[in-house]
Structure formats: C-alpha cells, structure tokens
Amino acid sequence: MRSLMKSRKKMSRTTIARILDAFHDSSRVLITSHKEPDGDSICSQLVVREYLESLGKECVLFNHGDIPARYRFVTGVENIHTDISAYDFNPDLVVVLESTSLDRTGDVASVIGDGVRIINIDHHEGNTLYGDVNLVDDRASSVGEMIYKILSEDGFVFKGTTAENIYIAILTDTGRFHFSSTTPDAMRIAADLIESGVDTRRVTDQVYFSMSEPQLRTIGEVIQSAEVHLDGRLCALTLTRALLDKRGMSFSDFEGIVDYSLQINGVEVGVLFKDISDDVTKASIRSRSNLDVAEIARKFGGGGHPNAAGVTLEAPLDEAKRLIIQAVKETLDRND
Questions:
Q1: For the domain with range 13-207, which CATH number is right: 3.90.1640.10, 3.30.2320.80, 3.10.180.10, 1.20.1530.20?
Q2: pTM for the predicted model, two decimal places
Q3: Which of 39, 46, 79, 246 is 20–30 Å from 63 (CA)?
Q4: Please, what is the average pLDDT of the chain?
C-alpha cells in the first residue's frame, strides 16, 4: 500500500522537499503522463527531463498516444517514446505528471515494476493519490506551473527551451489565458518566462496558427456538420474515422478543435465527439460560463477542469451523443 500524502489545499513546501529529495536520490527515472498527451503534459515532461539530466540522471520519457501535430515543433519532443513494445528500462523512480490515476497512463502503467517509487504531480480534482509522494493542487493553472515552482525551489533557472516549454504548458492549459484557471500566479510566471526571452508570438503562431491545408479543410467539414441543441445552448462537433481516412490523417492532428464549438453566440457548452472505434467514443467538453463540465465528465468516469473536461464512453457515437447531451441538459436545468 503506497503512503498517501495529500497537499490538495496548496503546494506544501514539505512535499516539494520530498519530491526534490527523490529526484536527487534517483539514478534512472521514467517520466510519463496521461494517455493522449497534451501541451501541458508534453512540455512539463521535457522540462523535468532537462532538469534531471542536469543532475546527471538517466531519463526515459514514455507516453501512451501520439504527439499531437501542433506540438511537434517543440524542442526535444522527439525524445518522447510512444511504442511501449520497445520499452527496455529499469527505473528506480517514476514521475507521473497530470494523471488523476495510474491507469490513465494507459499501457505505460503495465511496465512500472512493483516497489518502484512513484511521484504523482497533478492539478486535477479527483486524483486518487496513487504515488509514494503526491503533490495535487487543483488551483494551479497547469502542471507546468507546478513544475516551475518545484524546480525553482532547487535553484533551477528557466531559460531557453525550459522557459519556452513551461510557457507552452501554461498557455495551452489556460486556453490562451482564457479559462478560469488563468490565475495571478499563472500570469506572474508567464511574465517571468517572457522576461527570460520567450518569443510569445512565435510560440503562439506555432501552436495555434500553423496547420496544414488538409487540417484546415478537415476542420471546415467538421464545422459544416456542427449540431446545435438545447435551444442554442450546446454545440456539438463530430470528428469521425471516415473523415480522417479520407484525408489520410489521425485524431492527434486535431487537438484543440473542440474550441470551435464555443464560437456561436449564446452557446454555453461545446462538445467534440470522436468515434475511436465502433463501440468507443471520446467526448471533449468545454464551457465558457460557470457551468462545471468536469462534473458532467465525472458522471461517465472522466474528469478535468470546470471549463475543460473529457471522457471516453464505451458506446457507439450516436449513443454517446445522446448520453452527453442529456447530461448537459440536466446540468443546465439544475443551474437555471
């Protein structure tokens, strides 16, 4: 049974000290995150790797799921492995970032040996505190913000790629400083990173405005087929395997397109549905009001933040749509 050290209220300095001690005491470190990685998890992993390698540690980064197209420009991203069948590493420490439970790391969980110390760093409600040391702060904008604070306690200086990667982590997990997670702390850290030399225009252009023509045309088809429900309060987008096959693309090429579901005036909740298989559908849910979409996702075993959440349903596309739309309706009715 792993010892549980809660720090949900704030980032406890005692817990940070335990994490830093574990970093210094380790020799071989596996760094991982949730399956279907995003900007926060990818860039935070890369920063932790650079920090640990500066201490002379041997590090391997493994994720379950492809790197989304918009992050393939990130320096060092080629060092994140995704083929678990090629895994051949014997770590004495595992660092898990932005994952509410160990099974959310997907196939990576299967290669973590019994008795290996686990550091769990997360900013989501509902974290199961599965680590030997758990640092969970659901007020933090991102794991990137948490990593900045942790490593700063050890005197680590953020510059060059480490500064840029923490900036990308905060930028993307706050929705370009739009979500309610955009706290004063997040803005102060972003300001420090900009002062260190981060080129905000270049980063924002790369993440949000550098898609290929096939991506743009596919997004156009997704938007063209948008559905509006609940008297204009919900907009649903659908990205299907058939459409991707037609373009020769994959789901990882379209991270973030759920944001288009909130473009219509009056829409309070946006959802992107993806038919992962005939019987599995993933729903990404967003809101631009005080409506907590993480609560909706949790009804089906998912989770996230009040304005951005997700869930994978073991249901065909049409059934998944019915279930999510009904759950949104019930939540809206209860909040009216």
A1: 3.90.1640.10
A2: 0.90
A3: 246
A4: 94
